[in-house]
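Why does this matter for the project? Reviewers at the last site visit asked to see concrete outputs rather than summary tables. In response, this paragraph embeds two records directly. Each consists of the residue sequence and, immediately after it, the corresponding structure tokens. Nothing has been edited or filtered.
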Amino acid sequence: MLNPVAAPPRLVSVSTIWLQPKTLPEALAMLAADPALTPFAGGTDLYPAQAARFAWGEALPEAILDLGALPEFWGIAADATQWRIGAGATWAQLRDAALPAEFDVLRAASCQVGGAQIQNRGTIGGNLCNASPAADGVPPLLALDAAVELASLRGTRTLPLGKFLLGNRQTERAPDELLTAVLVPHRAGDLRSGFEKLGARHYLVISIVMVAAMVRMEAGRIAEAAIAVGACSAVAQRLPALEAALRGSRPGEVAVTPGQLDHLAPIDDARATGAYRREAALVLVRRLLARLALPEALVA
């Protein structure tokens, strides 16, 4: 006779306070008074995590800080030096926004985050603060040299995305800070960018490997290259050796070698082995660079 599966322990009571500040200073004051507050934006990461905790009898957050009413969290705008993407911008908004060519990489990733419902609710700020190694938004933003804006009652600071993300579910955000925006510098010239994702299916899937790239062309040569690989390390990684090799070359002149991906650290898990991920990353990098060499073949 099979042993029955033990039922999870049952919570006696649940009491979660829902706070909805109307301004950013009000939200920051609430967070300063209680840094244990759980920020809430789209909820597409928070809800599944809390449902699992509840099912096994673990404590739910005592209070939720709902950021949906803060005007500073919404909108996509440009000034003289950069684009400012509000942390509450959804994947659907990024997918449909009239952004310049270098954002093709982020637009393509936005089309592959979950399904339509996730794209309508999930936010770019939540994706970054959740800090999953398989976060689809991270490699495109690394390729775009993005930074994050963090606000608290102590002031506002800006960090390069590569310094904000510390590891699996770990960021540089202090307990009294909120991520308010993603900042992307302006670029000029012949810019081409793209995104490749490998998963068990096309939608509603956690990435096995993903690759994002942006290149700037001058007189038929690659003047600048930025390539990032996700789901192959605790944090998505740029490929500096390959980027350096590509500068000054014509598309297709530089062979992508396994050694240029040596610093990646893919793991074995339920979706793939580390060896498979490493080989797949090499294939996707080669495929994406070949596609960027023919801009007319790009599919947004």
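We now turn to the second protein, recorded in exactly the same manner.
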Amino acid sequence: MSSAAALRARGIGRVFTSAGGVVHACNAVDFDLFPAELVVVRGPSGAGKTTLLNLLAGLDTPTAGEVWIGDRKITDMAENMAVEMRRSLIGYVFQSFGLLPMLSATENVEVPLRLLRVNPSERTVRVAEMLARVGLSEHAEQRPAELSGGQQQRVGIARALVNRPRVLFADEPTGQLDSASASTIMNLIGTLVRADGISAVIATHDPLLVARADRVFDIHDGRLSEHRRGGRHAVQ
């Protein structure tokens, strides 16, 4: 494995069995993600985008194949080690925001730092900085129900980045937003990823983020292929 890759997957597959038969949601995928690279994965509903992101992020276990983040192979980690790895190296932005309804914006963003046992004074500083970066300092004490959809997703982005992850995953981050809010979120993700040098894999159809991407992949029936348009890196 090349040490240049921030994330690498080889031959990963995920098979689901149901009454309707066997579904190959992810099929023999090879994938490299490089430092400070923004990659978009696009495809129709049911094509395997979410399954792929979950496998790469260690949220699901592949039926076949292997995934590394840096030089750490995550597909055969003990569960307690995998949990610590996800907390420290990965950020995840969900389409449905995934905020805890009884917590304020500040408290939601603080959750990953509490799980990492960051000391309270540092937590306070880092949370305030992230809320400022996503333009929500004035809404820090509001709960999700008091925020618009776009504001809730900005809280989700702040939460995903507050632990300073190596890799960011975002699954249709504008899927529940109006066009104006979606534009704001797309620009925000692109700007923050570039500024922090984070490697990012984003499932989206949004043309604004597709235009920002270093590389674009299409997924159909669980198979991944690169959309050739040039870019900083070639598929290995």
